[in-house]
Amino acid sequence: MPNPTSDLTIGLPIPTAEAAELSLSPAELEAEVINLFDQFRGRLLRYVLSFGVPACEGEEIIQEVFLALFRHLRGGKSRANLRGWIFRVAHNLALKQLHANHKVRDAVDSDESIAAMHLDPSPNPEEQMVASQRQEHLRAVLHALPRRDRCCLYLRAEGLRYREIADVLGMSLGAVSISITKSFKRLGRVDES
After folding, report:
1. CA 66 to CA 89: how far, in whole Å?
2. Which CATH number fits domain 17-106: 1.10.1090.10, 3.40.50.10260, 1.10.1740.10, 3.40.50.300?
3. How does DSSP classify residue 145?
4. Has residue 23 got a pLDDT over 60?
5. What are phi and psi of 25, to 5 degrees?
6. How would you class 37 by CB atoms within 10 Å of its CB: exposed for 0-12, middle for 13-18, buried for 19 or more?
7. Packing angle between helix 55-74 and helix 82-117, nearest 10 degrees?
8. What are the tens digits of pLDDT across the range 122-166?
9. How far apart are the first and last CA of the chain?
C-alpha cells in the first residue's frame, strides 16, 4: 500500500499541514502550548472545579493537562481536535483526583474509627479530676445534711423501701418521703454549680 504522504510519481514526501507541524522546533512547540494554555486555562479550570475538586488541585490538574499536551505534540501525535483532547485529559485527571481524595478521606475516617476502637475507656486525667471534685462536693453536702436525713439516704441506698426506713428510724412514712426528697434536691444542686 502506498504511503499517503508521498508523491507516487517520484517517491518524495508531500508537504502536509500535519507533516509541517511535526517539524516545529521545541521553542515553537512551547509557544504553541503556551498560547493554548492562555486560550483554554479559564474554561478548563471552571470545568475541573465543577467536579468538586478544590481550586488548588484544579490548578495542578490544568498544569498537568498542558504538560501532557506538550509531550503529546512533541511526540508527533495527532493534532486533530486539540480542544477536545485537552478537555478529555482534564476530565480524566479530575476524576482521578476525586478518586484519590475519596481514598484519602476513607483512610482518614478508617484511621479515626480504628483509633476510636482502641481508645482507653478509662477517664482521662481531666475527667478524673472533675469526677474527684464532684465527689468531694457531694460528700461535703452529704455531711452537711441533718443526721436523720443522712440516715434516710443511707438506708435508701441500701435498698430499703420508705416504709422499712420509717420503721428502722421510728419516723412516719411522710417524714421519710420529705427527708429523702429534700436531700436529693440538695445533692442535685451540686451539679448545677
Report:
1. 9
2. 1.10.1740.10
3. S
4. yes
5. -70, 160
6. middle
7. 140
8. 778 888 898 899 889 888 888 899 989 988 888 888 888 899 899
9. 97
What dotted CATH number matches 125-192? 1.10.10.10
Decide: residue 139, CB within 10 A, 0-12 exposed, 13-18 middle, 19+ buried. Answer: exposed
Q: Looking at the DSSP assignment, which residues form a beta bridge with residue 6?
A: 13
- 8 A C-beta contact, residue 191 and residue 133: no
Burial of residue 150 (number of CB atoms within 10 Å: 0-12, 13-18, 19+): middle
Task: Give tens-digit pLDDT for 63-113.
Answer: 999 999 999 999 988 888 888 899 889 989 998 988 887 765 655 555 555
User: What's the grid cell of residue 161?
Assistant: 423501701
pLDDT reported for residue 117: 59
Q: What is the pLDDT of residue 22?
A: 52
Q: 158 with 188: CB under 8 angstroms?
A: no
